[in-house]
Amino acid sequence: MLLMEERIRRDGRVGPGNILKVDSFLNHQMEPQLYREIGREFYRLFGDCGVTKILTIEASGIGIACVTAQFFDCPALFAKKSRTKNIDGQVFTAQVESFTHGGSYTVMVSRRFLGPGDRVLILDDFLAKGNALLGLIDIVEQSGATLVGCGIAIEKGFQEGGRMLREKGIRLESLAIIEAMDEDGIRFRQGT
Amino acid sequence: MLLMEERIRRDGRVGPGNILKVDSFLNHQMEPQLYREIGREFYRLFGDCGVTKILTIEASGIGIACVTAQFFDCPALFAKKSRTKNIDGQVFTAQVESFTHGGSYTVMVSRRFLGPGDRVLILDDFLAKGNALLGLIDIVEQSGATLVGCGIAIEKGFQEGGRMLREKGIRLESLAIIEAMDEDGIRFRQGT
Fold first, then answer.
1. Which of the residues in chain A have pLDDT under 70?
2. Given A123, B117, B135, B157, which is the most exposed site by the fewest CB atoms within 10 A?
3. Who among B24, B63, B109 is closest to A63 (CB)?
4. What distances in angstroms separate CA B100 from CA A57, B57, B137, one per listed residue?
5. What ipTM was predicted for this assembly?
């Protein structure tokens, strides 16, 4: 999606430790026009898949999921993160390893909102190692729902998450794939 | 907003400890049509106030803020919660007391995204004691921006937050105000 690449080039900043900062438009401040185009693009990609639920994870996936849900006219659902493992049986849970914060956390979704009749599109703002996405996929599988695919705003193509998910046969659509980046610039994967 | 009251009556559940559960449509699963009408209603109420930024707090305010921002065509910004007080000078911070989880946490917003030229609408899903809202208002004041008002999906009118904020002269618009509730039913404040 050219619009996303242009926006990253213009307003993304690569900081120390090779961290991409997109907080001016994607995951702290959220630009309404960009969000609308993200929703429209995911609908163009997955609109014919019979999606009944959009699933994301708190916090920064929620905005993308809600605006995209306006195009699909289906509910959006966000998995909650918790450090506690003491959760009652009313939820599906999965463990997610965290590299940013260390350790692991539990993600959970109420059993009332996912089931065998659902066709689920998973959305998130970032894909790097893919651990959060694996947790969400695990929850979809536990529920008996069908995973239609995953939509990502920005994939870090130099980390292993994207390749790992594609090798599993999961349909993964990333609006921008960063092939390499440093403080001098960002290079995108061609043909995305 | 009749639609919100009807939805709470139909799908809200009052659980043990007098907790209102609205997770089937508002703060876990999020209904696209309801979200659209929430955005439309906040725009009807505040659309002539010259809003330049919508401010909310993670996690469940984010969806409301993003969908409402589509009507205002202005950026939405979410304050991040952190347990750490060691934050650099690039952010506005406020302390918020938490009654659900005990203790207090820090909310923060990057200084780059709020300033004296901004006219801010604060949105959130729930208002009870009003502590999170006070934290957001504190951040707006620190930035020198103008607070246009606060929009809330569901106000617990039997807790003190709403009265306290209105007594400060803050324009507070709640789409549904619950006057009383127990496991037998929910009574709304008239004329909202």
1. 83-89, 100-101, 191-192
2. B117
3. B63
4. 21, 16, 20
5. 0.95
